[in-house]
Task: structure prediction
Amino acid sequence: MKNVIEANINSYEDINWPNKNTKQNYSFIRSKNNNTVKIPVTIINGHLDGPTFSIMSGMHAGEYSGMIAAQKIISNISPSNLHGKLIIIPVISVEAFYQRSMQISPIDQKEVHFIQPGNPLGTYSELLIDTIFQIVKKSDYLIDMHSGELVQSLHPWVPVPLLGSNDMKDKAKLLARGYRVDFVEYREDLASIPPLCISLADEGIVNIWVEIGKNGIPTSSDVSRHYDGIISALKSVGCLAGKAEKPKQKIIKGRRYQINAKHSGFWHPDIREGQIVEKGQILGKITDFFGNLIEEYKAPEKSLVLYYWTSPAIDIERKPHGYDWHSGLISLLELNEIK
Ligand SMILES: [Zn+2]
Result:
C-alpha cells in the first residue's frame, strides 16, 4: 500500500480504476495554464458490487481531525469487507496544508468551498476544485469532513443540504443520521449552501458536509466522531455490513448568520461554542491594543453559537475577493425550530 501511482488526468474518464478487491493509492496530477494540482487519492474497490462513496477532507488546511479520520478509513477498510467503491481524498488543499494557510488558498486567495467546478482554465483553486469534481463525479454519495479552523472554536454539528429529489433528500438525512453530534442542521435555502454542494447534487451525488473539531487540535474524540460517522454512513447505504448507529440528535433549521467586526482591533469573545445566547446578550468586544473599548457586539436574536474566532487579530481591511473571513467574530444559527 505504500506504492503510489502517479497519474496525469484531465477528466474522470482518464482514471484507471483499480481491479476488484484492491486498494490503491494515487497522486492525480493535472496541469492547465501554468497551474498544476497534485491530489492524494486512495481508491478501494470492494470484492462485491455496490455504491460508489467519496470521502474527502482537508479542503481547509487547518482542519486536521477529518484528515486523520480519512487516514484511519484508508488503513482500516479492507476491500474484502467492502461492497462498491470508496474514493478517499485525505487532503484536498495540499499547498494550503504545507503552508498552514487558514481557510483561504495561499496561491490565489480564494475560498475553495465557494468555488463551482467547471472552470479548469481559471485560477489555481478553480483548477483544484474542478479536478476534485472530476475525481468524484461518478459517486453516489459524498461526505466532506470539516472542522473549526486553527483559530476557530466550533461545536460539532452536521449541515445537511436538502437538494434534488425527495429520494436524494432522504438519503442525505440518512448519511447524517449516524453522527454523534448534538445538532443536525437541515438547509434548504440555496444561498446558505456552498456552490460545490449544489454542483455535486446537480450531478446526482447525495452529499453532506460535517463540522467536528476545532483549533487545529485533532483530539481522539473528534477524530472518532468523524470516523464512526463515516462508518455508520457506509453501513446505512450498504457499502459495509452491519447496523448503523442511531445516536440522539436534535434537528435544527434556521437562518445562519455571522457577526462581523466593524472595526479592526483586538477581539475579546464573551461566549463559548455550543452556547445558546439570548437576544441582546453581549457576545464580546473589540478593543484597541491598549484594551480601550472600540465596540461591543450583541446577539440580534436568540441563537446557537456554532463557532467563534478565537484569535484576537481582526483586520476588516483584509477581504480577498470580497470574502470577510478576517473580520468574522461569531457564526450563529437563529433558533426558530428545534425538536
Ligand atoms: Zn472547513
About this structure: The pocket of zinc ion is lined by residues 59-60, 63, 146 (CB under 6 Å).
